[in-house]
Write a structure and sequence with these properties.
By secondary structure, this protein is of the alpha/beta class. The protein has helices spanning 2-15, 19-23, 65-72, 75-84, 106-116, 130-135, 175-184, and strands spanning 36-38, 44-46, 55-59, 89-94, 122-125, 139-140, 143-146, 152-156, 199-200. The strands form 3 sheets. Strands 5-4-3-7-8 form a 5-stranded mixed beta sheet. A two-stranded antiparallel sheet has the order 1-2.
Length: 203
């Protein structure tokens, strides 16, 4: 009976394009999965490199209309600049596989970031999708906030407006901003998990 139920659930996840590994999302309040990835800057970036700092992970696919919404409105760039200016590390992760929508080489990713006026700490290339799967990243954007001690504090949507229209950005409740402000103030994150929205990650 359990085997049948498990098979049914995994089949449902597979139909959604998530796969068995992505179905098992990480748990807030627990240590964030360690990783090391190449960056568009030619350097290798490991989560351990940023111990003692708050870290944001942002899953990115330039061709996704939901990502375009937040970049064309300058919402994402503003968040990146504001919080890196407050000593937060912001890592933009591209998990699109070679040949899939949104995939980028290091030079392409650097050029895209420059064109968009993006201001993350680094753009990371997760071609094998290992980090995306470890975190259960399902959408672009899918957002995570990791505390100074390496604990996952927030995961989910960037805000509460799950449309691809720019009009709602200004009035939407920004979950990432709130999670970061609460964390920087030494308070617990009041809403640690929300439902992510956007395009599926192209593993």
């Amino acid at each position: 009976m359990r085997t049948t139920l498990r098979s049914t659930l995994l089949g449902a996840f597979a139909a959604l394009g998530l796969g068995a590994a992505a179905a098992a999302a990480v748990t807030t309040g627990q240590p964030a999965p360690a990783f090391s990835l190449p960056g568009s800057d030619g350097k290798t970036h490991a989560l351990a490199d940023y111990a003692g700092k708050i870290v944001v992970l942002e899953w990115f696919n330039r061709e996704c209309p939901f990502v375009k919404k937040h970049y064309e409105s300058q919402n994402m760039q503003q968040l990146q600049r504001e919080y890196t200016g407050r000593n937060v590390v912001w890592l933009t992760v591209i998990s699109s596989a070679p040949g899939k929508q949104g995939h980028a080489t290091a030079s392409q990713a650097a050029a895209i970031a420059k064109e968009l006026g993006a201001a993350p700490t680094a753009v990371l290339l997760d071609e094998q999708g290992s980090v995306g799967r470890a975190y259960g990243a399902k959408t672009t954007p899918h957002m995570y906030v990791i505390g100074k001690d390496g604990t996952l504090l927030y995961q989910g949507a960037i805000d509460d407006d799950p449309s691809a229209q720019r009009d709602g950005v200004a009035t939407a409740k920004n979950y990432v901003r709130r999670a970061l402000d609460e964390t920087l103030a030494g308070k617990p994150v009041s809403e640690p998990v929300t439902t992510p929205y956007g395009c599926s990650v192209k593993y």
